[in-house]
Amino acid sequence: MKKFAIIGFGGLGKLHFINLLKIQEKRGDIALTAICNSDLSAITKTTQLNIASASLDDIDFSVYNLYTDYKEMIDKEQLDFVFVTLPSHLHAEVCVYCLEHGLDVYTEKPMAITLKQCESMIAAAEKNNKKLMVGQCLRFSEEYIYIKELIENNTYGKVVKAEFSRKSPIPGWSFENWMLDEQKSGGCIVDMHIHDVDVMVWLFGTPRDFSVLCSHNMASYESAFALYEYDGFGVSIIGDWGIPSSYKFKSYYAVTFENAYVECINGCVTLYTNEEKKEITFSGENYLYREEVEFLEGVVDGKPFKTADIYSVYETMKLIFAEKEKRR
């Protein structure tokens, strides 16, 4: 039986918790034994995010060992791996500590808030022969898997151009507003814009050049308008959370092929050709669940991380920090 813990129990920690209980029951060979959060009283509270809410009213938390200090938890618990769902600026410190203490690690995105921190995490994983996975969740989302399959199978010919955007109201839901502190979150570039940059790298590889503009009205690095250049086509990406709180989160992509156009608005995908317009339907499977399954199959069953290996995510991080550096 492999034992694990969750470090950080805000909104995403709770969403992962709900999924992991289902996977734990299905697998039967893993056991959540401990939870660490800076405020134990917040563990049972409902949390609202821009993507979902998490209610834990029916959970009996007395079956778990609860901690406010992750180092104390690691010292006292016999753990095999951990899920790190902390504020972004804590990822590197906590992940490196866990890796150096013999634990495999899943961490939420972004990998870290500086490139040097990312490199320290990879070095710790390699040095200690442990597995590290970063939750770049769109790689596991069906509407993005669909477009990747069209590209790889050359279903409608070559890509001519592509655009991605992700827009959110100003993120006022984080603990003590840490997301609005650019030193802790990296701003919209590192926190939200990263999703679409990562998808671009996953779909098309590393671009040969880019340009970017940023705005800083409601928060530092609240938005990024980037244009990436590949051989034969370009990709535009907008990430923006500098929008009043009454706005509702919206994600979008459009990919033009030689013989088709595919548009996705908030997960709803439409295929356009000269012959037809077709709504594409999916199973609706939880993308967080899919990435958790891949991580567990890696650390428990010994399978490679096919979708989100740490080196491909590092390529994304290099581009993200290059954007910030260009518009410093």
CATH topology of the largest domain: Dihydrodipicolinate Reductase, domain 2
Shape: globular
Number of strands: 16
Tell me what the CATH architecture of the largest domain is. Answer: 2-Layer Sandwich
Give the class-level CATH name of the largest domain. Answer: Alpha Beta
Largest sheet: 8 strands, mixed
Write down the overall mean pLDDT: 94
Helix percentage: 25-40%
Taken in chain order, the helices and strands follow as EHEEEEHEHEHEHEHHEEEEEEEHH
In CATH, the homologous superfamily of the largest domain goes by the name Dihydrodipicolinate Reductase, domain 2
Radius of gyration over alpha carbons? 20 Å
Uncertain segments of ≥5 residues (pLDDT<50)? none
Alpha-carbon distance between the two ends:
48 Å
Strand order of the largest sheet: 10-11-12-9-13-14-15-16
Summarize the structure.
The protein is of the alpha/beta class.
Describe this structure in words.
By secondary structure, this protein is an alpha/beta fold. It folds into two domains: 2-137 and 289-303, 3-Layer(aba) Sandwich (Rossmann fold), CATH 3.40.50.720; 139-288 and 317-326, Dihydrodipicolinate Reductase, domain 2. It has nine helices and 16 strands. It is globular and about 60 Å long. The mean pLDDT is 94.
